[in-house]
TrEMBL record:
A single GO BP: proteolysis
Species: Ottowia cancrivicina
EC number per UniProt: 3.4.23.-
NCBIfam families in the cross-refs: clan_AA_DTGA
Top EC category: hydrolase
Protein name: TIGR02281 family clan AA aspartic protease
Pfam families, A to Z: gag-asp_proteas
GO MF annotation, one: aspartic-type endopeptidase activity
UniProt xrefs under SUPFAM superfamilies: Acid proteases
Length: 210
């Protein structure tokens, strides 16, 4: 027979499930989001439903807005898991995909984009079609020549007001807009230099400086 104190502790743990450490969107089932929380089995949750400290706020064709650890996050199908624990607004934790790339959702000036970390890129780089979609006024920027396999092409250098990844925002980020189609926005050193970087296996941690 369990003691009263053991029963009380068990009830408390049942009432307050452990907060999620990371969460990803694996797919959609109608209006339900198929979430993987802390590497567990996929859970299908409709707007308003919760599991392991994650509540689904709304869903769309390939994305879901969730509330986790007091933070509202926009998850996209196929993006790397979003870390929702840690040190508030100063740390980003990314997990490599099957090809070893660090791909994550985020936003530029409040508009949702898909980033890929590129430590070899001097600046944040975005294709002109994506720049048009999110409303960047790049043609008033400084014309620059960009070297490609097919020679030099014309691009534009600008600064964007706000780049957000996870729960961390960097302001006034140097950006190059290129006419070359790009599947991702390259998260280059004009953003990464604001962080100290540590990689352990398939995980990369960016800690904001100062």
């Amino acid at each position: 027979m369990h003691s009263p104190s053991f029963v009380l502790l068990a009830a408390l743990f049942a009432a307050f499930p452990a907060a999620a450490q990371n969460v990803s969107l694996q797919g959609m089932m109608g209006s339900k989001a198929l979430l993987v929380i802390n590497g567990g089995r996929p859970r299908a949750l409709a707007p308003g439903e919760s599991a392991q400290g994650v509540k689904v706020i709304s869903t769309g064709a390939d994305q879901a807005v969730v509330l986790a650890d007091g933070k509202q996050l926009t998850l996209r199908v196929g993006a790397t898991p979003v870390n929702v624990s840690g040190t508030g607004n100063s740390r980003i934790v990314l997990t490599a995909d099957a090809r070893g790339h660090f791909v994550t959702g985020g936003s530029i000036n409040g508009k949702t984009v898909e980033f890929m970390v590129d430590t070899g890129a001097t600046a944040l780089a975005i294709g002109h079609a994506e720049a048009d979609r999110i409303g960047l006024d790049y043609q008033s920027g400084r014309p620059v020549g960009l070297r490609t396999a097919n020679g030099i092409v014309r691009g534009w250098q600008i600064h964007v007001d706000k780049v957000r990844v996870g729960n961390v925002t960097v302001h006034n980020v140097e950006t190059v807009v290129t006419p070359i189609p790009m599947p991702f926005v390259l998260l280059g050193n004009s953003f990464l230099n604001h962080f100290s970087m540590r990689r352990e296996g398939s995980q990369m941690t960016l800690e904001k400086r100062g």
